[in-house]
Structure formats: C-alpha cells, structure tokens
Amino acid sequence: MNFRAKTVQESIVETVHIIRPSDLNDAGRLFGGVLMQWIDEVAALVAKRHSQMNVTTASVDNLQFLHGAFQRDVIVIIGKVTHVGHTSMEVKVETYVENTDGKRALINRAFLTLIGLGPDNRPAILPRLILKSEEDRKEWERAEIRRSLRRKQREEGFHFYGE
C-alpha cells in the first residue's frame, strides 16, 4: 500500500449535477435522499483519493439542510479531508446551488467519517494528512472537537462502525 502523506488539496473532489424531475420530492424540492447519496459518493471519492484504498462510510454526524434546491438548479458538491486518524478520516462535504453568473449559495454541509479498508476488507492504516494552510489547521482543530464529541456519544450508548 502507498502510505505517502497527502495534502488536503490532493484529494478534493467537486461534482456538478443538474436537478431533474426524478430528483424531486412531492413538494418540488430536491429529495433529501438523492442529495445524501451524492454527498456520500463525494465523501467516498475524497477518502479513496487520500487513502488509495477502498473505503466505507462509518457515520454521518452532521447533515444540515440549510436551503432547498429546485428543478434545473445546478448543484455543486465539494468534499475535502479535514482529519485523519489511524484507520478513519473525516470528510467535510459542502453543497451549493450555482447561479448562471457563477455565484454559489451554500445549501448543505455534512461531515462524514470513513474507514480505509485493506485487501482483507478490514480497517487499514491511513496515510497522514499534511496541513499546509492556516485554514487546513483550523479545519483539523474543529474536526478534533467533533471527534471528541463522537467519542462522548459512544460512551453514552451511540454506536459506530466496527463496534
């Protein structure tokens, strides 16, 4: 396996979707389940780029629907690694509606924890994350806080992948 440390920038993923009628719920808005699928796919691609191995989603501990999106809206989804532990990593995924002038409005933010999987399909050691910018370091610090909160939730009876 390739254990070369990587920067946040090396694994960023951006996808673009146009909302079609089949993506809408009964209220004419983007169906949350469709968006959740797109978010999970982006997070998995980010994690695979970073780890260069198969991954699995362990948890989604924050998924905020801030605004709706509608038919023909252009959706831009951007994911990046914010924290890497021994076998798990946190990926931040932000979703925007992009207007025809290129301006983007944030409609969703999610944090997912993914596990790197070795050839035996068991959790595997991940490459380190290189923090180059002040923003990278701030994201790491915030991820440490979320990691601590997840640990506390486990102690209170919530269970995550592999437990």
UniProtKB/TrEMBL annotation:
UniProt KW keywords: Hydrolase
Domain (HotDog ACOT-type) ranges: 9-120
GO molecular function: long-chain fatty acyl-CoA hydrolase activity
BP term (GO), one: fatty acid catabolic process
UniProt record similarity statement: Belongs to the acyl coenzyme A hydrolase family.
InterPro entries, alphabetized: Cytosol_ACT, HOTDOG_ACOT, HotDog_dom_sf, Thioestr_dom
Protein name: Acyl-CoA thioesterase
Gene3D superfamilies: Hotdog Thioesterase (3.10.129.10)
SUPFAM superfamilies hit by this protein: Thioesterase/thiol ester dehydrase-isomerase
PANTHER family associated with the record: ACYL COENZYME A THIOESTER HYDROLASE, CYTOSOLIC ACYL COENZYME A THIOESTER HYDROLASE
Lineage: Bacteria, Bacillati, Bacillota, Clostridia, Lachnospirales
Any one cellular-component term (Gene Ontology): cytosol
